[in-house]
Model the fold of this input.
Amino acid sequence: MKPSLLCCALFPLSLLLFSPPVLARTIAFETLPALTRQSGDPNCPPTVIAYETNLPYQEGGYALNGTANLTAIATNIRFAESRPFSVTWTGTLKPAYRNCLGTARMTTVDGEAYQDHSYMRVWYEGGQVYFTLDMTGNRDPNNYTTSILFQTILNGNPRWRWGGSD
Done:
């Protein structure tokens, strides 16, 4: 079979022409230093960036893959805690940020203000960063709690998949 015909035999032409490109959403977290700070330099990371991508639709549900770029501000990323509806990763803050005491929440998605439930959160304490993906209070269209389907560490950064029913 000719290479030009092979593509059409493997993928219907309608999928090649009409499938939307899969783009990751860029999620920015703004850091809020604590009012009561630790002694020393209170320098905190100004932002943390995460990315989420919708997976192709599957009848009955939806899912998103995500990752957070913690290696930009920390080393030795590892699991801190995993529960049925949440997972927390932690890492050692880089020297410039070691004295940070504060939190961060989702503030923009693709540059647009984010006003909804912040299902991802960050906090800095004791020379560590903690990143939590939390499905508590996050519901799907059928009023079920969304689920964390997969969690790992890839290339030193948290990686996850979450989803729900439709």
User: Anything to note?
Assistant: The longest strand covers residues 74-83.
